[in-house]
Specification:
Helices cover about 40% and strands about 15% of the residues. It is an alpha/beta fold. It folds into two domains: about 140 residues, HAD superfamily/HAD-like (Rossmann fold, 3-Layer(aba) Sandwich), CATH 3.40.50.1000; about 70 residues, DNA polymerase, domain 1 (Orthogonal Bundle). Its EC number is 3.1.3.18. GO terms for molecular function: phosphoglycolate phosphatase activity.
């Protein structure tokens, strides 16, 4: 694989395993409203989608006001439980530090809120280590809209052909395709190699280590 000027990452199931916290927060909201039959796997399969879309998928509800109520309740739950129940994958810190040491720019493009990402990453990396974080509150349209990726490319002043976007889901693959940047799939999550391979990609990796291991 060629080297890139900028490596932009999805967050959940790409850099970090936040599934424990996500399942906890969704389940607390779902149970509160009488949705007792949604299993953990169904919750995990929605990771990477917006909160509103995820609740709609899991409950069948389409009423915008109800879904917005669920979203607000989830955010309150996440404020309490998310960071404590999120861990970086074992290789994440090593890979990001190695890429940075080699002169690459590092960024995160996620549907997760930026402040939540910063809360965890700030405990591990020095301030300004991550060159850019574009969270759910920073865009008008969520992935697979290319808005977040294009915003990062512009702010980093980096040509699209020098950007690699890495993610675990078909939403991430479609986002890269829509933005016109290269994509590499990461098999940390619930999406299979075959599902990712249906989209344009430069590679599909079991984890992040191939980025720095020759």
């Amino acid at each position: 694989m060629k080297s890139y000027q900028a490596y932009l990452f999805d967050f959940d199931y790409t850099l970090a395993n936040s599934s424990k916290g996500i399942v906890m927060c969704y389940r607390n909201v779902l149970e509160r409203h009488g949705f007792h039959q949604v299993d953990d796997l169904s919750i995990k399969r929605t990771i990477g989608k917006t909160l509103v879309d995820s609740f709609s998928i899991m409950t069948g509800i389409t009423d915008a006001d109800t879904l917005e109520t669920f979203r607000k309740e989830y955010v309150k739950e996440a404020d309490q439980h998310m960071t404590a129940n999120t861990v970086l994958f074992p290789e994440t810190e090593e890979v990001l530090r190695a890429l940075k040491a080699n002169g690459a720019r590092i960024g995160i493009i996620s549907t997760k809120y930026r402040y939540r990402i910063m809360e965890l990453m700030g405990k591990i990396f020095p301030e300004e280590f991550i060159d850019i974080i574009v969270g759910g509150e920073d865009v008008k349209e969520a992935k697979p809209s290319p808005e977040g990726l294009l915003q990062a490319a512009s702010r980093l002043n980096c040509p699209k052909e020098q950007i690699l976007y890495l993610g675990d889901s078909t939403v991430d693959a479609e986002t890269a395709q829509n933005a016109g940047v290269d994509f590499a799939g990461i098999l940390h999550g619930m999406t299979t190699r075959e599902e990712l391979a249906a989209y344009p990609h430069t590679a599909i990796f079991p984890d992040l280590l191939p980025l720095i291991k020759k």
